[in-house]
Amino acid sequence: MDGSGQNNPNGESWPRLAGLDAGYIARQLQAYKAGTRQNPSMQAFAQMLDDQQIADVSAWFASLPATAGQSAAAQGHSEELLKRGEQLATEGDWSKYIVPCSSCHGPDNLGAGTVFPAIAGQHFGYIRDQLLAWQQGSRKNDPQRLMATIAERMSSDDINAVAAWLSSQPATAEQ
Ligand code: HEC
Fold first, then answer.
1. Residue ranges of the Cytochrome c domain (predicted)?
2. How many domains does the chain have?
């Protein structure tokens, strides 16, 4: 109801949609319809929506205040993991040609325009699963393979680390 989604580290996590850019949400629904982004539950729901309904539901979720993620302590992530995650998100790792997430996703990873979604305060399980989906090729809708290229350079430890750190960051500048 509040668009906060749900973090299920051992199952399928559902993303926070509240406060995301409307154009971004709409493009994702179109991608599910087109099959360039694959997920059994979402593909079925997206098929039921026409263009107007996609625009309306996207505008609704975009209008909701961004809900906070979970603190690192509550999630039980180790200091070492969080440190590596912060490094990847804010500085990158040039030895692996990984540019900082913030270079595209905005200074605090709170999103930039309609192309680069907010990922700070997003759920751990969802961030991890998206990076894995790009690695495995089940998500192919990113412009110029911007995300696939990065995901392919990340180890599973890197993915867990960046998902852990980002998920425990504020989801808005005010939080
Ligand atoms: C070169 C630019 C660029 C960089 C650097 C980048 N991203 Fe992205 N990212 C994108 C774009 C573009 C999208 C939207 C893809 C789409 O339209 O489906 C995206 C989408 C995502 C999503 C999906 C969010 C959602 O709600 O669906 C996640 C998760 C993500 N990026 C994580 C990361 C992480 C973690 C890093 C750093 C390790 C990173 N990104 C670095 C460009 C970038």
1. 80-170
2. 1
Distance of CA 107 from the midpoint of ligand 1 (Å):
13
- Atom from ligand 1 closest to the CA of residue 159: 35
Can you give the residue range of the structural domain that contains 103?
22-167
Digit-coded pLDDT (tens) for 82-133: 999 999 999 999 999 999 999 999 999 999 999 999 999 999 999 999 999 9
Q: Is position 157 within any domain?
A: yes
Ligand 1 mutation target, pool 17, 39, 134, 147, most atoms within 8 A of CB? 147
CATH number of the domain bearing residue 129: 1.10.760.10
Q: Which atom of ligand 1 is nearest to the CA of 154?
A: 38
CA angle, residues 162, 163, 164, in degrees to nearest 5: 90
**Centre of ligand 1 from the C-alpha of residue 116, in Å:** 6
pLDDT tens, position by position, 18-76: 999 999 999 999 999 999 999 988 999 999 999 999 999 999 999 999 999 999 999 99
Which H/E stretch holds residue 159? helix 156-167
